[in-house]
Amino acid sequence: MSDPLAFRPDGTHRASSRVWVPEAPVALEYNGLSYAVMMATARDLEDFATGFALNEGLAACASEVTDIAVAEVEQGWVIRATVTGLGIDKLTERVRSRVAESSCGLCGIENLAEVARPLPPVAPHSAVAPTAIFAALTELRDHQPLGRKTGAAHAAAWVSANGTIGLVREDVGRHNALDKLVGAMARNGQVLSPGFVLSTARCSYEIVEKAVRAGATTLVTVSLPTSLAVDRAKSTGLSLWVLARDDEVTLVNDASA
Known about the structure:
Layout: E1 5-7, E2 13-15, E3 24-30, E4 33-40, H1 45-55, E5 65-73, E6 76-83, H2 87-100, H3 107-115, H4 130-140, H5 145-150, E7 154-159, E8 165-171, H6 174-187, E9 196-199, H7 205-213, E10 218-221, H8 227-236, E11 239-242, E12 250-253
Helix pairs in contact: 1-6, 6-7, 7-8
């Protein structure tokens, strides 16, 4: 079978032309050490390397992530970069602990503790108007070329307080899209507040944590949050809007001043 077939309830079918969202293994190496392999879309990888390092605490600012080199290899892609500052200690400790991990189960104690690690408090901020969210939602599709083409890519956007979209990054992974956005903003010398982050993803605790660590003060997602995501948003002072649709959006946590 060369082309996909779309079947209907009445038993008929038709040829279906589809473009699949690109997905490939992307290895992240910092200071010559292998840190992680992510399944990602191989575009804006310099932004990805920067945003990932910032969200992982390997760097405090974009200037601490240098010498970014992207290479396509037989198995996928490799991003190599240099980090400086306090992140070097965390990098070496992470690599050391990963090498020491085993299946004994004891290493899970440290991993569970990582889930509840403290987050920095969110800065005081003004409330976002629902009209700004609706305006951004109306505009978002125009900034999603990969999403329109494949129907299977996530997007993360930075939106100004009046609802104007300033920057968007896309990826097959919702976390990766946010990492790319954070990296692009940092490399451009831009900050995530005032304004808000708009994510097409399910609002998991990881999305909340990445937004907070990147300096966002308000997060808007198109899907519902998990219980832990809500707890983390409330504990840090992140304003959280969810289930954002063209006709309705739900305010879960209002932490605005």
